Amino acid sequence: MKFSLKQIAIFDAIADTGSVSAAAARVAISQSAASMSLQQLEQQVGTLLFDRQGKRLVLNSWGLWLRPRAKALLQDVHQIEMGLNAKHSLSGKLQLSASQTVAESLIPKLISNLDSNFPQIQVKLQVKNSQQIIQDVRSFNIDLGVIEGRCDDSKINQELWCDDELIIVAAASHPYARQDEVSFSQLEASKWVLREPGSGTRDVFDAAIFSKLEHLDVSKEYDHIPTLIALIASGEYISCLPARSCADGIKQGVLQKLNIKGLSLKRHFSFIWHKDMNDHALRDCLIKEAKRLIR
User: Are residues 272 and 126 in the same domain?
Assistant: First the structure.
């Protein structure tokens, strides 16, 4: 074998961070040692693996080819270490990204359950919209993502977690809140505040509504659901938001779900991961616990 596992680990850390110094800190070696390790690996494989763009190192085509294979190899090494040490519980770090609705409503309970049942698993959570999560999975920046709706990328595996629903919502003081049913023409005449393009919520809403309306007056777009709820509660706007996010406001009498006949806003939450990262014990454990959570 021309290269060492240590060289592969340093390559992976540089690919993650885009920096030799940051990678050196991650694997607890000196910057000069990390730089030498990368140089040796590139010499041994006979090609450069990164393009130098200013102070950043960016994977070139060969580096992109090696990245998933390096990750899979390092995961296998981790599993071997666990087996040889006769560990009976899973341990390690898992990079997880989830959309805002999932992160607010389901992830806290999931992490709490993991802490109780698998205390040696450390979940590092990022909150992003669905398109950003898909890109992070494609780039191997995270181990696992949770998105709203579908992902049609051929490089990504997708597994259903649970169903969800979006609702059209207004302030309890809004004129539409007193109606048994709201028409599409009334929706067209309304002022809207919506999630930003690229979010799963917005994708589902756009797909459902634009075949029904000729025009939609979107006054504001934000990626922060509490901001949208506060704007709706002011009485001027209506929106399409997850039912889970609006539940407290509806219960408190601040918000009102509007009934629109012929409008379906059902969706689902799904786990996604890169197809080149199929064997991952921590990921499989988290998915199993997540599905147990919603039974």
Answer: yes
